[in-house]
Write a structure and sequence with these properties.
single chain, hpI Integrase, Chain A, three-stranded antiparallel sheet, 5% strand, globular
């Protein structure tokens, strides 16, 4: 049920759109927040007629001085969906076209070296808790970041995992609200599952199964901001330079995939047979998404490029990164 409160002339339509999306199986949580900002924008512009003009839409789509191109594109995307919905129900609304934002520069994924990973996790292991604001940091972060790297999970898939999502006996985490809205099971290394059991016994003595496993405080999950600030701190302590564009937390996922493909290749495994396993593990909707890691691996380790080109010549040349799958 949508608990957001909307005040513009389109408050009923916004509620109906969210209800429709959720009935189709989408969580639509982030989008509900974006629609609330659109609602506020419409109120600020004193909209009194159920009609969205091109001028009003252009004003919404204009880039803010403080935002990235990615955030601008996200705002425009939600407005586009809303205006299409209004048109579908007979309300005139200008639909912002695609291609408004300038083309984003391609990000070159950072593949962490073995030395960087060792230095990073050494820094993580020195984490200190703050009794009032981060009482569990010293216990949570070493487990959180190691699972993030060794499982290939997205940041929010892991930080929002609840106790009931972790099968301590079988050794896997169930991801319920993945990027592509598909449930999947992610196996966790036995040694890390033992650490999860220890963490549960230490900080979840009185927690219900609905509690966030990597909680910031009881009833509160770690936020993306909290994870990012700690990540930047660990990078600095590990002596890993940050350019402003990277390395990013999501590069642990890239590194995991590249190292896994390298391992399979070195072991002489049939990558065609193993890639469906990686696709399922990562929660990819298409094979092309997974193929990006073939290209990364070939670029990072030229000695196996020829072997991979024999099996995936076109994909290695053409695969590109999906910039929308980070969190």
């Amino acid at each position: 049920m949508d608990k957001e409160i909307y005040n513009s002339i389109f408050q009923e339509e916004i509620h109906d759109l969210i209800a429709l999306k959720r009935a189709l199986g989408f969580s639509y949580r982030a989008e509900a927040g974006s629609l609330r900002r659109i609602d506020t924008f419409l109120c600020e512009n004193n909209l009194s007629e159920k009609r969205i003009s091109k001028e009003l839409c252009d004003l919404w789509c204009r880039k803010r001085t403080y935002e990235t191109v990615t955030n601008q594109a996200s705002r425009i995307s939600v407005m586009r969906v809303f205006c299409r919905y209004l048109n579908d129900i007979g309300i005139p609304a200008y639909i912002p076209p695609k291609g408004i934002t300038r083309k984003r520069s391609r990000y070159d994924a950072h593949i962490y070296t073995d030395e960087e990973l060792q230095s990073f996790f050494d820094a993580v292991d020195k984490s200190q808790s703050v009794p009032d604001s981060c009482p569990y940091r010293a216990d949570v972060m070493p487990v959180f970041f190691r699972i993030l790297y060794t499982s290939g999970m997205r940041v929010s898939e892991l930080r929002l995992a609840r106790i009931r999502d972790i099968n301590f006996g079988e050794g896997y985490i169930t991801v319920h609200e993945a990027k592509n809205h598909k449930e999947r099971y992610v196996p966790i290394h036995p040694l890390l599952m033992d650490k999860c059991k220890e963490l549960k016994e230490k900080i979840h003595v009185h927690s219900s199964d609905d509690e966030y496993f990597f909680m910031l405080l009881p009833g509160r999950p770690m936020t993306l901001g909290n994870v990012y600030k700690n990540f930047r701190r660990y990078l600095e302590q590990a002596g890993i330079s940050h350019t402003g564009k990277g390395p990013r937390i999501h590069d642990f996922r890239h590194t995991y995939c590249v190292n896994l493909l390298r391992k399979w290749s070195d072991e002489g495994k049939d990558l065609i047979a193993y890639l469906p396993y990686m696709r399922t593990m990562l929660g990819h909707e298409s094979f092309e998404e997974t193929a990006y890691y073939l290209k990364l691996t070939a670029e990072r380790f030229p000695y196996i490029k020829e072997r991979m080109m024999e099996s995936f010549p076109d994909l290695i040349r053409e695969a590109v990164i999906n910039e929308h799958e980070f969190y």
